[in-house]
Structures are given as C-alpha cells and as structure tokens.
TrEMBL record:
The keyword Cell membrane applies. Belongs to the MgtC/SapB family. Coiled coil: none annotated. The lineage of its organism: Bacteria, Pseudomonadati, Pseudomonadota, Gammaproteobacteria, Methylococcales. The chain crosses the membrane at residues 12-30, 42-59, 71-88, 108-135. This is Protein MgtC. It comes from Candidatus Methylocalor cossyra. It is a multi-pass membrane protein. Keywords: Cell inner membrane, Cell membrane, Membrane, Transmembrane, Transmembrane helix.
Amino acid sequence: MEALNHIDLASLLDTLVSLAAAFALGAMIGLERQYRQRTAGLRTNVLVAVGAAVFVDMANRLDGHQGAVHLAAYVVSGVGFLGAGVIMKGDGNVRGLNTAATLWGAAAVGACAGADLLLEAILAALFVLAGNTLLRPLVKAINRQPLDDRSSEVSYLVCVICNRQRQKEARERLEALLAAANYPVSAVHVYPFMGNEVQIFATLLSTAVDSDELDGIIERLTAAPAISQAYWTASTTE
C-alpha cells in the first residue's frame, strides 16, 4: 500500500514532461549519430538521456533538490564507465572518444530534463549537436593540412622489410643512410613479417625532418638488394 501513498498526479505529470523532453532531445542527438553509423546511435543516446532523467527526477521527488544534486554526480560516474566501453585502442589509434563524449553529453541533457531545467536541457542538446556537426568541417579542414615538419611535435618511423637472412645487411644500410642525412636513431626494433621476412623499424630522434629528404632515403633503401620494401610514417604526439 505504500506505493499508493506515493501516487501524486501533479508530480507524475511533471515526470512525464521531464522524460518526454529527455526522450526527444536524446533522439535528436542520437539521430545524428545514427546517420553517421556510430557505435552509439539513436537508441543508445535516447536510453542514456532518459535513464539520467529518471534517476535525477526520482532523487528530486524523494529528497528534493539536494538529493538530485547528489545523484547527478553518480550519473556522471556511471556514464563514464559506459563511455569507456565504446573506446577502443588498436594499431596505435584510439577510437570512440567522440562517441563516449556524446554519451556523456546525452546524460547531461537527460539530467537537466530530470531536474526540470527544460530550457537548459534544450540548450545542452543544441550544443552537443553543434559539436558533432558544425565543427566537423573545421576538423576535416585541419586534418587535410600537411604536417609542418619543423613546428609540429612529430614522431618519425622508417621501416624496411627484408629477408630474415639478410637482416643485418638491411639494418646496416638503413642506419648508414640515416646517419649520412644527420638523422640520429633513438631505437631500432625488429618484428616478424610474412613468411621468412622481417620488419625493421627505426625511430628518429630529430624533430626537424625534411619530408622530401626522407623520400629520397626510401628510394635508396628500396634500391638495395637486401631490402624488398621500405617506407616512412609520421604521427603527431601530445
């Protein structure tokens, strides 16, 4: 019978408005994610927003605004664990950070709706959408720019692939060409490749590397009898 005592139609209507707002705004964020075929799409963002709204609204009803504030902190922590589940690391790349951040934003939208801050929830949803849409062209434009070799913090790797039996000869040729170009090597690693071949990776110490000069080194490495393939790669570090 205790459940019947908690029935309050006015409060129930307030909860309905909060959850409907969280559902609609979460769907607005999720539609953009679904359109771009992201891991967390329409349903996930809606459920995160509605779930956050339910918890905050419940705390608001049971313990007032102070309870809602306390529970909102737990919502943030819980969604943090959920976001960690969509972050993947492999091949030197970290993927899913934007998806995790979007889920975090959806939870914030839901929490605002659950706390009856409907205008704040709408603003938050619009800013999350803006971050995922309006900033996309800017990010693409920046990523299309060539790396400024002399001002960016860049890590350079030179790789050669050779027969296992000619590994020593290939390594000596690699180190000799890099030394001749005044590119000191910080580390050399050898890894198995396909069949009877190995990969030799040389990490360069220098941060002022000339891309054209590295291309020339690669051409000379490829021409060496002991080396079947050669290439170089650069990646920015934070």
